[in-house]
Specification:
The complex is a heterodimer of chains A (114) and B (110). By secondary structure, chain A is mostly beta strands. Chain A has no helices and 11 strands. In chain A, strands 2, 4, 5, 6, 9, 10 and 11 form a 7-stranded mixed beta sheet that branches. In chain A, strands 1-3-8-7 form a 4-stranded antiparallel beta sheet, with no helix packed on it. Chain B has 110 residues and is an all-beta fold. The radius of gyration of chain B is 13 Å and the shape is globular. Chain B has no helices and 11 strands. In chain B, the strands form 2 sheets. In chain B, strands 2, 4, 5, 9, 10 and 11 form a 6-stranded mixed beta sheet that branches. Chain B has a 5-stranded antiparallel beta sheet with strand order 1-3-8-7-6, with no helix packed on it. Classes of the chains: A mainly beta (114), B mainly beta (110). At the A-B interface, strand 9 and strand 10 of A face strand 4, strand 5 and strand 9 of B.
Chain lengths: 114, 110
């Protein structure tokens, strides 16, 4: 089945230790998104790629970076995780931007910072 | 006032009951999404609507663009339907940002 896969499902890192979360998709979608979701809150868009074009949301901290080496893969790098970065990180894809393309989400990576 | 309002916030029902969750929004939209999230889990996209009505299995979603209102219905509810149901809209001003409702926590008791 075509899908969006996030690895790992659970990630534990130490305060200040860089961590990378990965997302892969078999849908060949043009747009990939990274969301951060804290407990009982709505997901917050961090950034997205439209093909190779990277778009950072204005309030995304500099501590968060992303790479998309090819259509299938997208990575979220947290350079120096703080305790406040503990959250569920969700990857999503859509064929195109705009209202005509459904979103497909992965199962998320739950990040714990110790 | 939030741009996307869902009601009810919490809903507990018995297995087999017909469930309705409502979503009202105040912005011009290009699409409305209904999403499901189980505790600690990822998000599953149930429907994307820009007009009319869609049905998938026991789930039905409707939207009234003039009234800026959408409903999600679950027929013959089952305990496995227990989850948070989220309404989110893509405004006409943004191709990428979603405006999210607060979610409706649904519990179906056996």
């Amino acid at each position: 089945d075509a899908m969006v896969i996030q690895n790992p499902r659970y990630q534990v890192t130490q305060f200040g230790k860089p961590v990378t979360l990965s997302c892969s998709q078999t849908l060949n979608h043009n747009v990939m998104y990274w969301y951060q979701q804290k407990s009982s809150q709505a997901p917050k868009l961090l950034f997205h790629y439209y093909d190779k074009d990277f778009n950072n949301e204005a309030d995304t901290p500099d501590n968060f970076q992303s790479r998309r080496p090819n259509t299938s893969f997208c990575f979220l790098d947290i350079r120096s995780p703080g305790l406040g970065d503990a959250a569920m990180y969700l990857c999503a894809t859509s064929r195109d931007p705009g209202g005509n393309s459904p979103l497909h989400f992965g199962n998320g990576t739950r990040l714990t910072v110790t | 006032k939030n741009e996307v309002e869902q009601s009810p916030q919490n809903l507990t029902a018995q297995e087999g009951e017909f469930i309705t969750i409502n979503c009202s929004y105040s912005v011009g939209i290009s699409a409305l999404h209904w999403l499901q999230q189980h505790p600690g889990g990822g998000i599953v996209s149930l429907f994307m609507l820009s007009s009319g009505k869609k049905k998938h299995g026991r789930l039905i979603a409707t939207i009234n663009i003039q009234e800026k209102h959408s409903s999600l219905h679950i027929t013959a509810s089952h305990p496995r339907d227990s989850a948070v149901y989220i309404c989110a809209v893509r405004s006409r001003d943004s191709n990428y940002q979603l405006i999210w409702g607060a979610g409706t926590k649904l519990i179906i008791k056996p």
